[in-house]
């Protein structure tokens, strides 16, 4: 084994699929190997960093066994191919799924970025073991995620050398990346990926040592020329490896949910009978937030008012079920890992359903915007009933020009990253001092915004409607010259009079209704 620096290869040739475990994961087994080239400028070594490009989401690792050509090969047989290999080392074939759309299969931009081919740290002489004696393992943040051996390969090393030599000359120093086993997945900024190749059954069990790469977040955006990064649900699921892996990553805050999966889950949630029926929605539409707060306070709910928020249009009113979005305080590394791409903020605004109110936890921080004109417009187009944030609103005048009601602490020109990291959606949050869960009923008017636990909705609305009718009658008496003494609140005399008039009005309504039939 040698630890000399690995010379920059003239050619880097990578195999698409070669391990049965990976082929099974992909759902296809090739009859023959296929290849792509990686540029020499993509080579890096152990201890280096790799940037996830700005505006991308799906940077994936692929731990691999790399073979280094030692003797020129042209038109060699599969039986002789291994003889042309000088050494073996570890490799990581990084790629960005977001850029697959740009390459049409060539992988130039997807897998050709600077530092996207770490090699090393040591070379093991090929003579240390036979073709079938090698093992590759990969760790992410110390957890073993890939492990396989060369005796399982669909296309052994010698066959790869022979096949390639039919078409081109392999020169000393050229590198062949021989494929990755199952377990390849997505990494995010801050993750550390380690790959090791060894020959565990050979004398001395030689090893390359661990090839260590740390993921960082790129800051330079793509220009207005060339193909932009783009992904869909199929790419997202393929990058993460499985629906289970994606679901676990979403739960851990490391991934954006697949839109189809999110839509399906949302559909399942909204297809169930809603506590906010059309009848209750209509009833609550004429009830003041102040009245609802009285009914809730009687039941021990004193902290259900979202403090400090005001509507962007005078007279605005909102009624809907809560969809929640949570921001955490800004920290550079966390913003690097969660602030880019299709982050939690964009997910929330892109998946809010008709009739829902998007409620944002911004910790009462007024010193930056939490929603701007584009996202507010997206919520309006999707039919959201409103937006509530205990933070600021950017592009305030533009947002005020939209129809959608927005309750906030007021305008602020700064972007989100000044104070916040978009963290997660559809979780319990604290907005303006009130706990809000997905599915809570949110009602807002000129007095502010209140949150009603869904199990209390029917009784609270019934009581509030009755209270509104009673207060309207009291107002009529005051307008007619009555003193508020004994009337507000009503003493026994006024109560009896009110109930008599209410019964009379009810009877009259029944007569009219019966006659109409």
Commentary on this structure:
The chain is α+β, with helices and mostly antiparallel strands and 517 residues long. It has three domains: 12-251, Fumarylacetoacetase-like, C-terminal domain (Fumarylacetoacetate hydrolase, domain 2), CATH 3.90.850; 259-458, Ribonuclease E inhibitor RraA/RraA-like (Glucose Oxidase, domain 1, 3-Layer(bba) Sandwich); 483-517. The chain has 16 helices and 28 strands. Strands 16, 17, 18, 19, 21, 23, 24, 27 and 28 form a nine-stranded mixed β-sheet that branches. Strand 25 and strand 26 (434-436) form a beta hairpin. Helix 10 (289-298) packs across helix 15 and helix 12 (344-351) runs parallel beside helix 13 (373-381). The chain is elongated and about 110 Å long. It starts with 11 loop residues before the first strand and ends with a helix. 42% of the residues are buried.
Task: Output the keywords.
517 residues, alpha+beta, Fumarylacetoacetate hydrolase, domain 2, Glucose Oxidase, domain 1, 9-stranded mixed sheet, 16 helices, disordered C terminus
N-C termini distance: 98 Å
- CATH names the topology of the largest domain as Fumarylacetoacetate hydrolase, domain 2
CATH architecture of the largest domain: Alpha-Beta Complex
Mean pLDDT across all residues, rounded?
A: 88
> Structural class of the helices, strands and pairings?
alpha+beta
Structure annotation, total helices: 16
Could you tell me the radius of gyration in angstroms?
32 Å
Shape: elongated
What is the CATH homology-level superfamily of the largest domain?
Fumarylacetoacetase-like, C-terminal domain
Pfam family, one: FAA_hydrolase
Keywords: Metal-binding
Protein name: Fumarylacetoacetase-like C-terminal domain-containing protein
Organism: Agromyces allii
